[in-house]
Amino acid sequence: MATDAKRMEEGLAHNPSENVDSDRKGEGGEVGIEEGKKEGNGAVLEQDAEKKGEEQQQIFIKQKSKRIATLDAFRGLTIVLMILVDDAGESYARIDHSPWNGCTLADFVMPFFLFIVGVAITLALKKIPKLSSAIRKIVWRSIKLLFWGIILQGGYSHAPDDLAYGVDMKVIRWCGILQRIALVYLVVALIEAFTIKSRPATLEPGYTSIFTAYKWQWLGGFIAFLVYMITTYSLYVPDWSFVYYNNDEATRYTVKCGMRGHLGPACNAVGYVDRQVWGINHLYKYPVWQRLKACTRNAPSSGPFREDAPSWCRAPFEPEGLLSSISAILSGTIGIHYGHVLIHFKGHSERLKHWISMALALLVAAIILHFTDAIPMNKQLYSFSYVCATAGAAGILFSLFYLVIDVWGLRTPFLFLEWIGMNAMLVFVMAAQGVFAAFVNGWYYGTPEKSLVHWIHKHVFVDVWNSERLGTLLYVIFAEITFWGVVAGIMHRLGIYWKL
């Protein structure tokens, strides 16, 4: 825990000092100082000049402490969406992850995280006093994200319902949400840090000048794109097999492939790379493709396998795997670009025009690629059309938040999102990963099913509304999202934030 409300944070962790040197008149803090230095022209007494300098310095400090509230609100919204789709998605399959091609509400969560990570990096690394120190912090933060990811999603934590803990290292899951964020953060932050000295003080006229000014960041994203596309469409995927356990009965299945460039569940290069790198025993055991019509009659909801279900329906698949995480670097790169616009463009209208125009271009590209079947939107593969669609949606939503919260000043309706965004790591661990619920479940009466969490869910929500689905949805909204919004607000008032 840290109580310093002025520390730097990226990704899930809050950064109370995220800010840009801007005011409503379109002038920056540094500009204000330079103008202050030019005033007087010898006509003002030395004492008055010193006083004016102190005033200008105070103005500069005040402007520096002013952050963009949209970043906290957007980060908070992403956490809220994660809790909603994770805990209510089973009851409302339409908001859960798409079983394969397509894009649902749940499919926006991961790219939204990566987008806001990119925006936050530009502000946190706006000025680097010492490059070696910045690199150490970037690497160390990435290691901490990896550590927490493996603890929370590797199988060690069984929260919230199973009170046991521990994982067999033969089947530990190496990939996950925080692990992907760690990889993307490490790559884009290091590029940003190493190129900080080449950052232009001012941009040349023209729409494309900000792209050329940060060519190294875009080059990094383009290399990630090339690696992903070349591997996806050229790598030969041979036949493969796996062992499926059902009631302690082991059955070996074989999946026939022997092809290249396949984008279906069975024979894609994304799954093949993960099977080769991590080993099939270390992949996610319950992939969303199990909800496909080919696998279950309950599609798009979960259900028992069909009698004639293909063998791959029972196979593991890693939704946050290596090759798809390389593609996810593009989401962070686009977020970096939005942060650069925030730094260089001082006027609200300039920022919004650039953000919205780029977001619309990304959405158009995604629609064309998807509906022509050139590259379908697919979260599990993290396809290029999926990157464009989700980054475009993030850009539009970020622009709307910025307009309403930071331009029009309507912060009150979004305060609970800001509070959650300020303590995003805490809410992610305690709520989204169920650690707090698991702690409460540890105090039960007679049997583990008789705990406070289960009692509230059943008697306060399900029984009152006489509906398992509606009761679960209301439980998630009020007993999880609203509860943690209040907790995050109290911690903000106390100046307490969880720092990674």
TrEMBL record:
Bias-annotated ranges (Basic and acidic residues): 1-12, 21-40
Superkingdom classification of source: Eukaryota
Pfam families cross-referenced by the UniProt entry: HGSNAT_cat
Coiled-coil region(s): none
Region of interest: Disordered: 1-50
Domain spans labelled Heparan-alpha-glucosaminide N-acetyltransferase catalytic: 67-194
Transmembrane regions listed in the UniProt entry: 68-85, 105-126, 138-159, 171-195, 216-236, 322-343, 355-372, 384-405, 426-445, 472-491
InterPro entries: HGSNAT_cat (IPR012429)
Keywords: Membrane, Transmembrane, Transmembrane helix
Protein name according to UniProt: Heparan-alpha-glucosaminide N-acetyltransferase catalytic domain-containing protein
Species of origin: Kalanchoe fedtschenkoi (Lavender scallops)
Lineage: Eukaryota, Viridiplantae, Streptophyta, Embryophyta, Tracheophyta
